[in-house]
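Q: Hi! First time asking for a complex rather than a single chain. Here are the components, and I think there are two in total. Is that enough to go on?
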Amino acid sequence: MEQLFDADLALLHKKRALKQGDPGARFLMQRAAADLEERLATVERRFENAAALFCLTSDAAMAMRESGKVDQVTRIEADAVLLGDDGIVAATETLPSEPGSHDLIVSLLSLHEANDVPGMLAQIRRALKPDGLFLGAMAGAGTLQELRESLLAAETELSEGAAPRVSPFADVRDVGGLLQRAGFALPVTDLENLTVRYDTMFDLMRDLRFMGATSALVARSRKPATRALFMRAAQIYAERFSDPDGRIRASFNIIWMSGWAPHESQQKPLAPGSAKMSLKEALEKNRGE
Amino acid sequence: MNDEKRDGQAVSAVAPMDGKLLELLVCPLTKGPLRWDRENGELVSKSAKLAYPVRDGIPIMLPSEARPLD
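A: Yes, that's all I need. Here is the structure of the assembled complex.
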């Protein structure tokens, strides 16, 4: 399979970000964790054995514990450094859990850097008990579009052609299809659009670095980017995407996914042809009332 | 690296392994079952012929970190 992301480099970015530990750059993860807590609160269920899969920080596990719906949370990360003192270390994009061992699996803000998203979803689905829940969030199409456009415009202007510098992100409609393909029942996706404002493009890039979210694309340019490129890109960014007060906008479009491992108790569509009443009859009946 | 030293390190790093957690784990390569080797502080995957280390109570389920068994 074609590798889009350099998993080792992505992990290196995350570890560096953790070491720098800039509290301001955690806003995206904290917000996702708060959303997670809210989403869990609406589920009328208790979960005995949950896993926080590649959630990078402890925010997700903490939100799960604080939701009051989860008895036990196991953290699974790609490196022991990310774990602190508790959890399991697993290779990138592998879930070393017995089939049917969790009743809740959560993944926050890392699936957009997976090379094989369908494969990840299939593994998650398999590790869930029947009627177990998967809740995930990842960056979706439109995320950092302003940065992408500014860098692209600056680079085509200054050199012959341009290298990809911002990851491609999945569309919310495709993600729904992926959930279905992985065998999840009652799959739901929705989109949370977040606009963050910065003084300059450099402040945005600084936050991305502190999130460990800088580009880990395999096809990234191996030539060091010049200062002139970033200066010009920042200029274009300010020209095209700033508010009247001069601050620039950055979009983060977070796709939320949820799906259940199939179970008999769940509602299902009836088999085609099993209807006892024709649509025509139903409509006429309705009109008569 | 000689085997004796390796085992010595492993023994010193043995921390109690949560039995419930152990039940959930499989070998990431073969998805086969794991056996807890208390003596060496390792999780043994018979199907992959690998022993995964457990350091400070954290199972390291990485084939690159595992000790090959023959």
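A: The CA atoms of residues 20 and 38 of chain B lie 15 Å apart. Let me know if you'd like any chain examined more closely.
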